[in-house]
Amino acid sequence: METKKWFEKKTILVLGLAKSGFAAAKLLHQNGANVVVNDKQPFKENYAAQKLQEAGFEVICGDHPISLFDTNSFDLLIKNPGIPYENVMVQEALKRNIPIWTEIELAYLLTEARFIGITGSNGKTTTTTLIYEMLKADHKQAKIAGNIGTVACEVAAHAEKDDWIVTELSSFQLMGTKTFRANIGIILNVVDAHLDYHHTRQSYEQAKQAVYKNQLKDDTAIINADDETVCRLAEASSGKKVYFSLTQQIENGACIKNETIYFNQNPIIERKDVVLPGAHNLENILAAICAVKQAGVSNEAIREVLTTFSGVKHRLQYVAEFNGRKFYNDSKATNLLATSKALDAFKQPVILLAGGLDRGNELDGLKEHMGNVKTIVTFGQTAGKFQKLGRELGIHQIKRVDNVEQAVLEAYKLSEANDIILLSPACASWDQFKSFEDRGDMFISAVHMLK
Questions:
Q1: Are 97 and 113 found together in one domain?
Q2: Of 69, 101, 133, which one is at a domain's C-terminal end?
Q3: What are the phi and psi torsion angles at 378 (to 5°)?
Q4: Residue 307, annotated as binding a ligand
Q5: Full domain range(s) for residue 25
Q6: Does the annotation flag 121 for ligand binding?
Q7: Distance from C-alpha of 404 to C-alpha of 28, rounded to nearest angstrom
Q8: Is 278 assigned a ligand-binding role in the annotation?
Protein backbone atom coordinates (compact mmCIF):
# COMPACT_ATOMS: atom_id res chain seq x y z
CA MET A 1 0.00 0.00 0.00
CA GLU A 2 1.14 3.50 -0.77
CA THR A 3 1.28 5.74 2.30
CA LYS A 4 3.36 8.69 1.12
CA LYS A 5 0.96 11.20 2.68
CA TRP A 6 1.75 9.79 6.12
CA PHE A 7 5.01 11.75 6.11
CA GLU A 8 3.42 15.16 5.47
CA LYS A 9 4.13 17.65 8.29
CA LYS A 10 5.87 14.97 10.38
CA THR A 11 9.13 15.92 12.11
CA ILE A 12 11.71 13.22 11.47
CA LEU A 13 15.28 12.78 12.70
CA VAL A 14 17.63 11.08 10.24
CA LEU A 15 20.54 9.70 12.25
CA GLY A 16 23.66 8.94 10.24
CA LEU A 17 24.15 9.81 6.61
CA ALA A 18 26.16 7.62 4.23
CA LYS A 19 24.13 6.58 1.18
CA SER A 20 21.00 5.41 2.99
CA GLY A 21 20.66 8.43 5.29
CA PHE A 22 21.25 10.90 2.47
CA ALA A 23 18.61 9.23 0.27
CA ALA A 24 16.12 8.91 3.13
CA ALA A 25 16.45 12.58 4.09
CA LYS A 26 15.81 13.76 0.53
CA LEU A 27 12.82 11.48 0.01
CA LEU A 28 11.20 12.40 3.31
CA HIS A 29 11.58 16.07 2.48
CA GLN A 30 10.02 15.50 -0.96
CA ASN A 31 7.08 13.82 0.76
CA GLY A 32 6.37 16.81 3.00
CA ALA A 33 8.30 15.95 6.16
CA ASN A 34 10.28 18.36 8.30
CA VAL A 35 13.68 16.63 8.36
CA VAL A 36 16.53 17.14 10.84
CA VAL A 37 19.82 15.38 10.07
CA ASN A 38 22.45 14.37 12.62
CA ASP A 39 25.77 12.81 11.66
CA LYS A 40 28.89 12.27 13.76
CA GLN A 41 31.38 13.12 11.01
CA PRO A 42 32.52 16.77 11.22
CA PHE A 43 30.75 19.11 8.81
CA LYS A 44 33.93 20.21 6.99
CA GLU A 45 34.67 16.57 6.07
CA ASN A 46 31.06 15.65 5.38
CA TYR A 47 30.12 16.15 1.73
CA ALA A 48 26.62 14.66 2.15
CA ALA A 49 25.86 17.01 5.05
CA GLN A 50 27.08 19.99 3.08
CA LYS A 51 24.83 19.12 0.15
CA LEU A 52 21.81 18.75 2.42
CA GLN A 53 22.49 22.04 4.18
CA GLU A 54 22.76 23.77 0.79
CA ALA A 55 19.30 22.35 0.02
CA GLY A 56 17.89 23.94 3.19
CA PHE A 57 18.00 21.01 5.62
CA GLU A 58 18.78 21.47 9.31
CA VAL A 59 22.06 19.56 9.72
CA ILE A 60 23.94 18.94 12.97
CA CYS A 61 27.38 17.36 12.61
CA GLY A 62 30.30 16.38 14.82
CA ASP A 63 28.43 14.90 17.79
CA HIS A 64 25.05 13.56 18.90
CA PRO A 65 23.32 16.25 21.04
CA ILE A 66 20.42 14.84 23.05
CA SER A 67 19.12 18.41 23.32
CA LEU A 68 17.68 17.97 19.81
CA PHE A 69 14.86 15.99 21.41
CA ASP A 70 13.94 19.00 23.55
CA THR A 71 13.96 21.48 20.68
CA ASN A 72 12.06 19.19 18.29
CA SER A 73 9.03 16.99 18.75
CA PHE A 74 10.13 14.04 16.65
CA ASP A 75 7.52 11.66 15.24
CA LEU A 76 10.10 9.21 13.94
CA LEU A 77 13.83 8.42 13.91
CA ILE A 78 15.37 6.81 10.84
CA LYS A 79 18.86 5.53 11.57
CA ASN A 80 21.70 4.30 9.45
CA PRO A 81 21.67 0.48 9.78
CA GLY A 82 25.23 0.37 11.09
CA ILE A 83 24.53 2.61 14.09
CA PRO A 84 24.12 0.40 17.17
CA TYR A 85 21.12 0.66 19.44
CA GLU A 86 23.47 1.71 22.26
CA ASN A 87 23.93 5.06 20.51
CA VAL A 88 22.83 7.92 22.80
CA MET A 89 20.34 9.31 20.27
CA VAL A 90 18.75 5.90 19.73
CA GLN A 91 18.53 5.33 23.47
CA GLU A 92 16.89 8.72 23.96
CA ALA A 93 14.35 7.96 21.23
CA LEU A 94 13.53 4.66 22.91
CA LYS A 95 13.01 6.42 26.24
CA ARG A 96 10.57 8.80 24.55
CA ASN A 97 8.74 6.02 22.67
CA ILE A 98 9.74 7.45 19.30
CA PRO A 99 9.59 4.78 16.55
CA ILE A 100 13.00 3.79 15.13
CA TRP A 101 13.24 2.60 11.53
CA THR A 102 15.86 1.91 8.93
CA GLU A 103 15.28 3.15 5.40
CA ILE A 104 13.99 -0.27 4.28
CA GLU A 105 10.75 0.47 6.14
CA LEU A 106 10.59 3.82 4.37
CA ALA A 107 11.12 2.08 1.01
CA TYR A 108 8.22 -0.27 1.70
CA LEU A 109 5.89 2.59 2.56
CA LEU A 110 6.84 4.65 -0.51
CA THR A 111 5.78 2.16 -3.18
CA GLU A 112 3.21 -0.39 -4.28
CA ALA A 113 5.90 -2.41 -6.06
CA ARG A 114 6.52 -6.01 -5.01
CA PHE A 115 9.53 -6.94 -2.89
CA ILE A 116 11.79 -9.97 -3.06
CA GLY A 117 13.77 -9.85 0.19
CA ILE A 118 16.98 -11.87 0.47
CA THR A 119 18.83 -12.28 3.76
CA GLY A 120 21.15 -14.82 5.41
CA SER A 121 24.58 -14.96 6.96
CA ASN A 122 26.22 -15.80 3.62
CA GLY A 123 25.37 -15.70 -0.07
CA LYS A 124 23.03 -12.69 -0.09
CA THR A 125 24.72 -10.69 -2.82
CA THR A 126 25.20 -13.60 -5.20
CA THR A 127 21.60 -14.78 -4.74
CA THR A 128 20.22 -11.26 -5.11
CA THR A 129 22.18 -10.76 -8.33
CA LEU A 130 21.12 -14.14 -9.73
CA ILE A 131 17.45 -13.39 -9.07
CA TYR A 132 17.71 -9.96 -10.69
CA GLU A 133 19.51 -11.33 -13.76
CA MET A 134 16.97 -14.16 -14.16
CA LEU A 135 14.05 -11.75 -13.97
CA LYS A 136 15.69 -9.50 -16.56
CA ALA A 137 16.46 -12.45 -18.84
CA ASP A 138 12.73 -13.24 -18.83
CA HIS A 139 11.87 -9.58 -19.53
CA LYS A 140 10.22 -9.02 -16.15
CA GLN A 141 10.17 -5.52 -14.65
CA ALA A 142 12.89 -5.66 -11.99
CA LYS A 143 15.09 -3.33 -9.97
CA ILE A 144 17.94 -4.25 -7.62
CA ALA A 145 18.36 -2.54 -4.26
CA GLY A 146 19.42 -2.64 -0.63
CA ASN A 147 22.86 -3.74 0.52
CA ILE A 148 23.77 -4.04 -3.16
CA GLY A 149 23.49 -1.25 -5.68
CA THR A 150 21.12 1.65 -5.06
CA VAL A 151 19.58 2.49 -1.69
CA ALA A 152 16.19 0.75 -1.40
CA CYS A 153 14.12 3.84 -0.61
CA GLU A 154 15.55 5.61 -3.66
CA VAL A 155 14.67 2.66 -5.88
CA ALA A 156 11.21 2.41 -4.35
CA ALA A 157 10.47 6.08 -4.99
CA HIS A 158 10.74 5.48 -8.74
CA ALA A 159 9.28 1.97 -8.91
CA GLU A 160 6.04 1.03 -10.66
CA LYS A 161 3.34 -1.19 -9.21
CA ASP A 162 4.31 -4.17 -11.40
CA ASP A 163 8.04 -3.94 -10.62
CA TRP A 164 9.91 -6.51 -8.58
CA ILE A 165 12.35 -4.81 -6.21
CA VAL A 166 15.04 -7.42 -5.56
CA THR A 167 16.47 -6.38 -2.21
CA GLU A 168 19.54 -7.63 -0.35
CA LEU A 169 18.80 -7.21 3.36
CA SER A 170 21.21 -7.29 6.28
CA SER A 171 20.19 -8.06 9.85
CA PHE A 172 21.01 -4.42 10.67
CA GLN A 173 18.44 -3.22 8.13
CA LEU A 174 15.76 -5.74 9.05
CA MET A 175 16.03 -4.93 12.75
CA GLY A 176 14.66 -1.46 11.93
CA THR A 177 11.47 -2.63 10.22
CA LYS A 178 7.93 -2.84 11.57
CA THR A 179 5.52 -3.37 8.67
CA PHE A 180 7.95 -4.30 5.85
CA ARG A 181 6.56 -7.25 3.92
CA ALA A 182 8.45 -9.36 1.42
CA ASN A 183 6.15 -10.83 -1.21
CA ILE A 184 8.90 -13.39 -1.68
CA GLY A 185 11.16 -13.76 1.37
CA ILE A 186 14.36 -15.80 1.59
CA ILE A 187 16.66 -16.71 4.47
CA LEU A 188 19.60 -18.54 2.94
CA ASN A 189 21.30 -19.72 6.13
CA VAL A 190 21.99 -18.58 9.70
CA VAL A 191 25.30 -18.87 11.55
CA ASP A 192 26.78 -16.80 14.38
CA ALA A 193 27.56 -13.39 12.90
CA HIS A 194 27.41 -9.73 13.94
CA LEU A 195 27.06 -10.72 17.59
CA ASP A 196 29.04 -7.61 18.53
CA TYR A 197 26.01 -5.66 17.22
CA HIS A 198 23.13 -7.93 18.21
CA HIS A 199 24.79 -9.28 21.41
CA THR A 200 22.77 -12.52 21.36
CA ARG A 201 22.07 -15.19 18.78
CA GLN A 202 18.36 -14.79 19.52
CA SER A 203 18.42 -11.09 18.63
CA TYR A 204 20.27 -11.85 15.39
CA GLU A 205 17.77 -14.55 14.45
CA GLN A 206 14.79 -12.28 15.22
CA ALA A 207 16.22 -9.62 12.91
CA LYS A 208 16.58 -12.14 10.08
CA GLN A 209 13.06 -13.45 10.72
CA ALA A 210 11.59 -10.07 9.75
CA VAL A 211 11.81 -11.18 6.11
CA TYR A 212 9.09 -13.78 6.90
CA LYS A 213 7.06 -12.40 9.77
CA ASN A 214 4.68 -10.01 7.95
CA GLN A 215 3.98 -12.30 5.01
CA LEU A 216 0.36 -12.99 4.01
CA LYS A 217 -1.12 -16.15 2.51
CA ASP A 218 -0.45 -14.97 -1.05
CA ASP A 219 3.26 -14.47 -0.30
CA THR A 220 6.03 -17.06 -0.46
CA ALA A 221 8.71 -18.06 2.04
CA ILE A 222 11.78 -19.63 0.39
CA ILE A 223 13.38 -21.93 2.97
CA ASN A 224 16.72 -23.75 3.22
CA ALA A 225 15.58 -27.26 4.19
CA ASP A 226 19.16 -28.09 5.27
CA ASP A 227 19.26 -25.35 7.91
CA GLU A 228 17.31 -26.11 11.09
CA THR A 229 17.35 -22.47 12.18
CA VAL A 230 15.89 -21.25 8.89
CA CYS A 231 13.15 -23.89 9.06
CA ARG A 232 12.25 -22.77 12.56
CA LEU A 233 12.23 -19.07 11.66
CA ALA A 234 10.01 -19.78 8.65
CA GLU A 235 7.22 -20.80 11.02
CA ALA A 236 6.52 -17.06 11.35
CA SER A 237 5.39 -16.86 7.72
CA SER A 238 1.73 -17.13 6.78
CA GLY A 239 2.69 -17.57 3.13
CA LYS A 240 3.29 -20.55 0.88
CA LYS A 241 6.46 -22.44 1.81
CA VAL A 242 8.92 -23.49 -0.90
CA TYR A 243 12.10 -25.38 -0.02
CA PHE A 244 15.57 -25.88 -1.46
CA SER A 245 18.17 -28.46 -0.44
CA LEU A 246 21.62 -29.69 -1.42
CA THR A 247 21.15 -32.98 0.46
CA GLN A 248 17.47 -33.92 0.24
CA GLN A 249 15.04 -34.71 -2.55
CA ILE A 250 12.47 -31.90 -2.62
CA GLU A 251 9.05 -32.19 -4.23
CA ASN A 252 7.96 -28.59 -3.62
CA GLY A 253 11.06 -26.63 -4.51
CA ALA A 254 14.63 -27.05 -5.80
CA CYS A 255 17.20 -29.79 -5.34
CA ILE A 256 19.94 -31.74 -7.14
CA LYS A 257 19.35 -35.24 -8.47
CA ASN A 258 21.71 -37.23 -10.71
CA GLU A 259 23.91 -34.14 -11.21
CA THR A 260 20.91 -32.18 -12.50
CA ILE A 261 19.15 -29.23 -10.87
CA TYR A 262 15.39 -29.77 -10.50
CA PHE A 263 12.49 -27.52 -9.55
CA ASN A 264 9.17 -29.14 -8.57
CA GLN A 265 10.56 -32.46 -9.89
CA ASN A 266 11.20 -30.98 -13.35
CA PRO A 267 14.79 -30.79 -14.67
CA ILE A 268 16.16 -27.27 -15.16
CA ILE A 269 19.87 -27.60 -16.01
CA GLU A 270 22.71 -30.08 -15.68
CA ARG A 271 25.18 -29.14 -12.97
CA LYS A 272 28.14 -29.31 -15.38
CA ASP A 273 26.63 -26.49 -17.45
CA VAL A 274 26.55 -24.04 -14.53
CA VAL A 275 29.38 -21.50 -14.86
CA LEU A 276 29.37 -20.09 -11.32
CA PRO A 277 32.25 -21.75 -9.37
CA GLY A 278 32.13 -23.34 -5.92
CA ALA A 279 29.86 -25.98 -4.45
CA HIS A 280 28.54 -23.42 -1.95
CA ASN A 281 27.09 -21.38 -4.81
CA LEU A 282 24.73 -24.24 -5.64
CA GLU A 283 22.77 -23.29 -2.52
CA ASN A 284 22.45 -19.72 -3.83
CA ILE A 285 21.39 -21.01 -7.25
CA LEU A 286 18.68 -23.26 -5.82
CA ALA A 287 17.31 -20.39 -3.71
CA ALA A 288 17.29 -18.07 -6.71
CA ILE A 289 15.44 -20.63 -8.85
CA CYS A 290 12.78 -21.03 -6.14
CA ALA A 291 12.29 -17.28 -6.04
CA VAL A 292 12.07 -16.58 -9.76
CA LYS A 293 9.73 -19.50 -10.41
CA GLN A 294 7.26 -17.76 -8.05
CA ALA A 295 7.53 -14.75 -10.39
CA GLY A 296 6.82 -16.87 -13.46
CA VAL A 297 10.32 -16.96 -14.95
CA SER A 298 10.88 -19.57 -17.66
CA ASN A 299 13.41 -22.39 -17.51
CA GLU A 300 15.03 -20.95 -20.64
CA ALA A 301 15.76 -17.64 -18.88
CA ILE A 302 17.17 -19.48 -15.85
CA ARG A 303 19.48 -21.53 -18.08
CA GLU A 304 20.61 -18.43 -19.95
CA VAL A 305 21.82 -16.85 -16.70
CA LEU A 306 23.36 -19.98 -15.20
CA THR A 307 25.41 -20.67 -18.33
CA THR A 308 26.84 -17.14 -18.45
CA PHE A 309 26.94 -15.69 -14.89
CA SER A 310 30.40 -16.23 -13.39
CA GLY A 311 30.07 -14.38 -10.08
CA VAL A 312 29.98 -11.09 -8.22
CA LYS A 313 32.93 -8.88 -7.35
CA HIS A 314 34.51 -9.75 -3.97
CA ARG A 315 32.62 -13.07 -3.80
CA LEU A 316 35.11 -15.78 -4.79
CA GLN A 317 35.97 -13.52 -7.73
CA TYR A 318 38.62 -14.77 -10.14
CA VAL A 319 41.12 -11.93 -10.54
CA ALA A 320 44.05 -13.14 -12.63
CA GLU A 321 46.60 -15.85 -13.33
CA PHE A 322 50.28 -14.99 -13.08
CA ASN A 323 53.13 -17.44 -13.60
CA GLY A 324 50.82 -20.38 -12.97
CA ARG A 325 49.26 -18.94 -9.80
CA LYS A 326 45.53 -18.15 -9.79
CA PHE A 327 44.34 -15.27 -7.60
CA TYR A 328 40.81 -15.16 -6.11
CA ASN A 329 39.21 -12.26 -4.24
CA ASP A 330 36.71 -13.41 -1.60
CA SER A 331 36.84 -10.27 0.55
CA LYS A 332 33.10 -10.59 1.26
CA ALA A 333 33.93 -13.64 3.40
CA THR A 334 33.53 -11.89 6.75
CA ASN A 335 32.80 -14.98 8.85
CA LEU A 336 34.00 -18.56 9.27
CA LEU A 337 31.24 -20.17 7.22
CA ALA A 338 31.97 -18.03 4.18
CA THR A 339 35.69 -18.80 4.30
CA SER A 340 34.98 -22.50 4.89
CA LYS A 341 32.90 -22.60 1.72
CA ALA A 342 35.59 -20.79 -0.26
CA LEU A 343 38.25 -23.25 0.90
CA ASP A 344 36.01 -26.19 0.00
CA ALA A 345 35.72 -24.85 -3.57
CA PHE A 346 39.36 -25.72 -4.40
CA LYS A 347 41.21 -29.02 -4.74
CA GLN A 348 44.58 -27.37 -5.54
CA PRO A 349 47.08 -26.20 -2.88
CA VAL A 350 45.85 -22.93 -1.32
CA ILE A 351 47.73 -19.98 0.11
CA LEU A 352 45.17 -18.35 2.39
CA LEU A 353 45.21 -14.60 3.04
CA ALA A 354 43.09 -13.99 6.12
CA GLY A 355 42.53 -11.72 9.10
CA GLY A 356 40.65 -8.61 10.15
CA LEU A 357 38.38 -7.30 12.88
CA ASP A 358 38.49 -9.37 16.09
CA ARG A 359 34.92 -10.02 17.25
CA GLY A 360 36.02 -12.38 20.01
CA ASN A 361 35.28 -15.69 18.30
CA GLU A 362 37.83 -18.47 17.85
CA LEU A 363 38.76 -20.02 14.50
CA ASP A 364 38.17 -23.70 15.29
CA GLY A 365 35.33 -23.85 12.75
CA LEU A 366 37.88 -23.53 9.94
CA LYS A 367 40.00 -26.52 10.91
CA GLU A 368 38.17 -29.24 8.99
CA HIS A 369 38.25 -27.09 5.81
CA MET A 370 41.99 -26.33 5.84
CA GLY A 371 43.21 -29.60 4.31
CA ASN A 372 44.49 -27.95 1.12
CA VAL A 373 45.99 -24.90 2.83
CA LYS A 374 49.80 -25.01 2.57
CA THR A 375 50.49 -21.42 3.69
CA ILE A 376 48.74 -18.74 5.75
CA VAL A 377 49.50 -15.05 5.27
CA THR A 378 47.68 -13.08 7.95
CA PHE A 379 47.02 -9.46 8.90
CA GLY A 380 44.74 -7.30 11.06
CA GLN A 381 43.52 -7.72 14.63
CA THR A 382 43.07 -11.49 14.31
CA ALA A 383 46.54 -12.16 12.89
CA GLY A 384 47.66 -13.82 16.14
CA LYS A 385 44.67 -16.16 16.07
CA PHE A 386 45.48 -17.25 12.51
CA GLN A 387 49.10 -17.85 13.47
CA LYS A 388 47.90 -20.04 16.34
CA LEU A 389 45.50 -21.90 14.04
CA GLY A 390 48.29 -22.58 11.54
CA ARG A 391 50.59 -23.95 14.22
CA GLU A 392 47.85 -26.23 15.58
CA LEU A 393 47.29 -27.61 12.08
CA GLY A 394 51.00 -28.15 11.43
CA ILE A 395 51.19 -25.59 8.63
CA HIS A 396 54.86 -24.72 8.33
CA GLN A 397 54.60 -21.52 6.30
CA ILE A 398 52.82 -18.83 8.34
CA LYS A 399 53.61 -15.19 7.63
CA ARG A 400 52.26 -12.15 9.48
CA VAL A 401 52.14 -8.84 7.57
CA ASP A 402 50.69 -5.38 8.09
CA ASN A 403 48.11 -5.22 5.31
CA VAL A 404 46.56 -6.88 2.27
CA GLU A 405 49.00 -5.31 -0.17
CA GLN A 406 51.94 -6.87 1.68
CA ALA A 407 50.02 -10.13 1.95
CA VAL A 408 49.76 -10.45 -1.83
CA LEU A 409 53.50 -9.93 -2.28
CA GLU A 410 54.41 -12.41 0.47
CA ALA A 411 51.91 -14.96 -0.82
CA TYR A 412 53.43 -14.80 -4.27
CA LYS A 413 56.96 -15.21 -2.86
CA LEU A 414 55.86 -18.32 -0.95
CA SER A 415 53.87 -19.84 -3.82
CA GLU A 416 54.54 -22.29 -6.61
CA ALA A 417 52.94 -22.88 -10.01
CA ASN A 418 49.41 -24.36 -9.76
CA ASP A 419 48.80 -22.78 -6.33
CA ILE A 420 45.60 -20.86 -5.54
CA ILE A 421 46.22 -17.53 -3.79
CA LEU A 422 42.95 -16.82 -2.00
CA LEU A 423 41.90 -13.71 -0.07
CA SER A 424 39.12 -15.03 2.19
CA PRO A 425 39.55 -13.16 5.48
CA ALA A 426 36.90 -14.86 7.70
CA CYS A 427 36.64 -11.49 9.48
CA ALA A 428 35.04 -8.11 8.97
CA SER A 429 37.23 -5.41 7.46
CA TRP A 430 36.60 -2.49 9.79
CA ASP A 431 39.87 -2.71 11.73
CA GLN A 432 41.79 -1.48 8.67
CA PHE A 433 39.25 -0.60 5.94
CA LYS A 434 35.99 1.26 5.45
CA SER A 435 34.41 -1.83 3.89
CA PHE A 436 35.08 -5.30 2.51
CA GLU A 437 34.95 -3.68 -0.94
CA ASP A 438 37.94 -1.47 -0.08
CA ARG A 439 39.81 -4.53 1.17
CA GLY A 440 39.03 -6.48 -2.01
CA ASP A 441 39.99 -3.56 -4.22
CA MET A 442 43.38 -3.36 -2.50
CA PHE A 443 43.87 -7.07 -3.18
CA ILE A 444 42.96 -6.68 -6.86
CA SER A 445 45.26 -3.67 -7.22
CA ALA A 446 48.14 -5.53 -5.56
CA VAL A 447 47.67 -8.54 -7.86
CA HIS A 448 47.79 -6.33 -10.94
CA MET A 449 50.89 -4.57 -9.60
CA LEU A 450 52.57 -7.99 -9.39
CA LYS A 451 51.83 -8.57 -13.05
A1: no
A2: 101
A3: -125, 160
A4: no
A5: 9-101
A6: yes
A7: 40
A8: no
Q: Print the SS3 string covering 352-411.
A: EEECCCCCCCCCHHHHHHCCCEEEEEECCCCHHHHHHHHHHCCCCEEEECCCHHHHHHHH
CA dihedral 259, 264, 267, 269 (to 10 degrees): -70
Q: What type of residue is 121?
A: S
311 occurs within a structural domain: no
Residue 125 annotated as binding site: yes
The pLDDT profile of the chain, 451 residues, written as one tens digit per residue, is: 346 678 899 999 999 988 889 999 999 999 999 999 999 999 998 999 999 999 999 999 999 999 999 999 999 999 998 888 899 999 999 999 999 999 999 999 989 999 999 999 888 989 999 999 999 999 999 999 987 778 999 999 899 999 999 999 988 889 889 999 999 999 999 886 565 665 688 888 998 999 999 999 999 999 999 999 999 999 999 999 999 999 999 999 999 999 999 999 999 999 999 988 777 789 999 999 999 999 999 999 999 999 999 788 888 888 889 999 999 999 999 999 889 989 998 989 999 999 999 988 899 999 999 999 999 999 999 999 999 999 999 999 999 999 999 999 999 999 999 999 999 999 999 999 989 999 999 999 999 999 7
Q: Check whether 371 is labelled as a binding-site residue.
A: no
Residue 355 annotated as part of some ligand binding site: no
pTM over 0.85: no
Q: Is 149 annotated as a binding residue?
A: no
Same domain assignment for residues 218 and 83: no
